[in-house]
Amino acid sequence: MIFSGIQKSSLVDYPGLVSCVLFVPGCNFDCFFCHNRSLFSGPHEILDPNAVWAFLKKRAGLLDAVVLTGGEPTLQSDLVETLQKFKSLGYQVKLDTNGSSPEAVSAVLKSGVCSYYAIDYKAPAARYHEICGPHADAKSVQTTIKMLLDSDVSFEIRTTVIPQLTEKDLLQMASELPPVPRWSLNRYRKPEQFKPCDTARINAPAWTQEQIDGFAEHMTTIQPYMNRNK
């Protein structure tokens, strides 16, 4: 697998555990607010895989978990094998995905290698193309989420509350999914890299944390396990 970035220690990417976060390049979405745009459009760094594995072996027993994120990890052909290698070193394993490939997530589920999943549900289904690009398909994401629910594994839904999402949008999103074990609303922060054509959208005023807390409170009438990330 190609690794394009590493965060050697994180307290926030795996609930309750200290993790190493590994980034992979490439994505089939084109979210205008992406904070990892270089992984989508380049140029991006290519890490020495031998150095990555040497680091993970050295830190086994000191770090609790490895988180694979991107980019979009489910585009990688050796996804299951890589996750299994993380687990063989004694780590808990978490997969971050946009949910666009139910088939890839199904293969990971069948392997039993992941102990936690995070799925980004980015917008109401009717607005997925507008916000996530022409290749984004909300139905595939919904299928992935329902698959995780049926598999009884630990996972969370995440939504970045971009300025273009209203409370009505968030309530619509909540109604489009069955109740999930955890749903996190994250504050929007302006990315460093973005397409010039998206300047107006990028510079739109962000919702305050108080407003996001209010959105989450209203969403609990549909999704009882809401979480606000500040």
Q: Tags for this entry?
A:
230 residues, alpha/beta, TIM Barrel, 8-stranded mixed β-sheet, 35% helix, 21% strand
Structure description:
This protein has 230 residues and is an alpha/beta fold. The protein has helices spanning 37-41, 49-59, 79-88, 102-111, 128-132, 138-151, 167-176, 199-202, 209-219, and strands at residues 5-14, 17-23, 65-69, 92-97, 116-120, 155-161, 183-187, 226-229. Strand 1 (5-14) and strand 2 (17-23) form a beta hairpin. The mean pLDDT is 95.
Classified by CATH, the class is: Alpha Beta
CATH superfamily annotation: Aldolase class I
Query: Count of DSSP E strands?
Result: 8
Low-confidence stretches: none
Structural class: alpha/beta
Name the shape in a single word: globular
Strand content: 15-25%
Mind telling me which CATH architecture this is? Alpha-Beta Barrel
What integer is the average pLDDT? 95
- Gap between N and C termini, in Å? 32 Å
In terms of quaternary structure, the protein is: single chain
- Series of secondary-structure elements, N-terminal to C-terminal: EEHHEHEHEHHEHEHHE
How many domains make up the 3D coordinates?
1
